TrEMBL record:
Domain TonB-dependent receptor-like beta-barrel positions: 487-1112
Protein name: TonB-dependent receptor
TonB-dependent receptor plug domain sequence ranges: 56-177
InterPro entries linked: Beta-barrel_TonB, Beta-barrel_TonB_sf, Plug_dom, Plug_dom_sf, TonB-dep_rcpt-like
UniProt-annotated location(s): Cell outer membrane
Amino acid sequence: MNMKPQKVFTRSRLNYAIAILAGVASTPFTYAQESTEPVIEELVVTGSRIQRVDNATSTQPLSVISAEDLSSSATVDIGEILNENPALLSSVTSTNSIGGTAANSTRSSNVGGSALNLRALGSQRTLTLVNGRRHVSGIEGTSSVDVSTIPSALIERVEVLTGGASAVYGADAVTGVVNFVLRNDYEGVDIDFRTGISGEGDANTLSLRALIGQNFDDNRGNFTISLQHDSSDGLRAGDRDFLANDGRATGDVNPALRFQQGDINASNTPNLAQYYNFNNTGLFPYGLRIPTAEAFASNYLNEFGSAPTLTAAEQALFDRPSSASPRAFLPGRTFNITSPYGVVALGDFGTSIPLGQEPDLNGNGTSDCLDSFTGYNSSLDGAASFGAAGGCWVINEAGELVSYEDGLVTGNFNQFGAAQSYIAPNRPFVIPQDDKYSINLNGRYEISPTMELFAETKYVYHEVVFGGGGNQATDLLYGAPDNPFLPAQLAPFANNPGVGFVGPGGLYISRDSDDWGDNESINRRTTYRLVGGLRGSLDQWGLDYEVAANYGKFNRHYKSPFTPITDRFFAAIDVTTDPATGQPVCRSDLSATAYPRTTPFNFPSYLGGGALSSFFSFQAGDGQCQPANLFGGKGSISQESIDFFTYTRTVKEEIEQSVVSGFVSGNSSEFFTLPAGPVSFAFGGEWREETSAQEYDNYDQGILPVSGVTANGVAFEAGDWIGDVSNAQSLGGSPGNRALSTSASYDVWDIFGEFEIPLLSNLPLIETLTLDGAFRRADYSTFGESDTFKVGGLWAPVQDVRFRANYSKAVRVPNLFELFSPEQGQNFRPNDPCDVSQLSSAPDPTLRQNNCVADLQAKGVLNENIFDASGNYIFVDPLSAGFPGVIGGNPDLQPEEAITKTLGVVIQPRFVEGLTVSLDYWDIVIEDAISEISSQNIATSCYDSPSLDNPFCELLDRNREPSSAQSGGFTFLRQVQLNFGEAKATGVDLNVNYQFALGDYQFGLGGAVTKQLELEFIEPSNPGEEAVVDDDLMEMNRPEWAGQLNFSVATGPFSVSLRSQYLSEMALTGPIETAVQNYGPGIFSDEFFSHNLSANWDYSSTVRVYGGVSNVTDEEPYATQRSYPVSPVGRAYYLGINVAL
């Protein structure tokens, strides 16, 4: 092809990479033999459409990962390889897409995928390109690309530009650009097979790739086809000891603040044993908070008429809270009022059976309810604690009724290590199981010496299996006295009518069922992409041009089995005996208007009153309902019953992207030339349209499948919405939450231009002085016009040293999800900041308590539930489960604007051949940053603000019924996207790359270190108020220091490389100031090191064998994390063979 004359530099892959990497960060290389006769080639690099000789002339920091680095890595996940780059440390990879941290967490739509995140400021602010062009998103409503769909065999290099690039590539490039450059002129056949296995003999991986390319018509054309299959068995929690049985540490109130089993005994603590004795005072000997010695002495005197003489052991117990942190991280946290097969309580709150006189089924001479703190705490007629949930017995797998066994008590509902309670089961995936197939066909053809036709096509099918946890968790399900499945030992008590708000006796069971079936969700994802265009040269003007059209489409089909249909579930568990057959039967089959009780907490609330108001998903009495035995242990619910009350939830998503773009580039040499050289330029335009749609099933949307009449006489027809005839929003497992099928789109027209002006050259102390800049104007259908720009400069006083600086303004408009996602139901469970145990975590505990008191009193909570007789604050969160709310987009969002500054130096000393050192300072400030504020931050910010008159309190509501068991508990939360305020990140990058030879050995030494100086999110403040600064630096996944060191050596056909990663200490939870207050200085992790070793053997000119070990030292994730900062797989091995013909 005879386009504008180019100088081509044909070198070995090593030297080619060195040319690209001059002055920028690098990862290590695998070396090949040097070729002869170098030729110079001008390259178009990320961040500019202006051709440059090498990347050392870039005014912004730029790092490159070569194809050799990708092929020799221990993983086939491109995202995981890039995640080793300190700038991309917070990216989502297939390994951490389930157990990600707050900094990189993602929705289920991206489980198994990889989304890049520069500077920990969000993947929505990182623009991912393929061959300099946009790629369709792989996450609903966003521009985040699933880079795992990019074929690794086709990748020539990956360019990572840090710093705003909106002026060149448009919105979303706020923190930078990652550009995947694909091969476009491959000839031959390359087949690669690799397999991997963990040191434990599991977590198998398999990859098979084929690359076929051929020139034709005297090399005027080329086609290249890539075929790839990757699969992984995944990893389940039970496969690793440190994950099994909920082995990750979880934060809760420190058990040291309460009496625990064994603390009180008659010999060492006689005064405590006398006082904390149910028969004497009605108090339990453990589980209650430790008072001060003075308070205990006063209470003892009032109770027994004499002051106690404390023993040394007693004084030590009273002193223990003063040396204990308010909260603790321990493994095996349990929700002790429920279990996989049921915690059982007598079903009449306010029972006429006095506490302590309940059944003694185990015959130990003590009421079963006094065998445990859980039983005592949930006894229903006057226990000193909550007294409205849980139970005295546990049903084990075999269906046996046994007394509860406590662990370490942290509160009314939570413990550590209560083995009978619900512990997260061991079968959930922590690394998803996936199968991926991709085919790419790219081609080009030279129509004339000045015009070339090119095309890229792509299809990827990706199936991901994840989930596998419990099926359904519901507290206090009612078993009527005539339910034939009730445990026989409790039948006499269940038939004892009681008083209170439940009525005619019965039992309650809280069951976190995990025996309905393998609750494994499936994502089936397909990605299509078509690119076509013309490129060439206009020789008469010395210009190059490109015109291209780009269409991409992403589909996701999500399936989640064993989702309960609420009215069917309650119908199935409301069982009686059929008088005609003597067999268990659904009560609704005998009476179509016998609506079952729901729960004492009025869940679900169809018309209120604690009972269903109708059957909305089936016709009662039609024989569909199959009775469910909740009380028989594992597997007691028949498959017929499970099939009746569950269904497979489905969600379908579609994202489409259409782009038409064109640009012209060249220089002024045909018209004028400055003393230092011609002015280079590029200008062009682009039109882009983005569309996103979600489709939910009818149960999720609350579309009624049958006709009927509610209990209050309101008729409904099939096709009606349940919300028009009841308080419910949907028919699924969360009836207070509704999902709406929606679609949204926008389009944008852009014009842009770039320039590079060589100001001076070849002067004393001015080897080179260059100025460059870019400007873009965009016109959005949603927001109108916006302008972005950048200006930069490069000064080389001598050939060895280059100084560079860049200043840019970037703009990101809200994406479709942030704008138009409809408000949909969502369950929330933040810690209640007003719970007495949470006050110590506040920056100002007194302020929080005052706000809480004011709000609780305004919501009608009785003073006796806020203060004790001595005036001490005692409010306890009454909720035992999540509460409903809504989550959705915000059409009032405005674009966010970022100012990015970089300043750096590149050193390539001629006296040390092969050495490149770069040092860059970067500063990013995002105004009006768009953020989805977490439910916890909403709740906390409400009560930690100077007053309750703040926007966060407007997003919350509490139970306003003084007589309710949940009085004062949260009842609603609205979570929306907001222009939150300001985000600020600054830091310094140091990159070193040194290539040298000693005899027959070639060595490579590369390092990249980032020192993060600031990472802050600043909330907007009211006039006269100080802004609230959330400092995220040193929180999880946001280390102060991050580094990567790479060493390689090659001789003859052999090469070995070692890749090491370093992370400085991080807080296991945040914010740091609060975390230190709550957990003490031990909240920080240790410094982290990990190492990957790889080796290559060129068996012949066409066959290469390679292999390696990842995580050589078998490091584990942090105590609070499942897959960070290292995969839970542990040490793993891989072996591959590559045949190139």
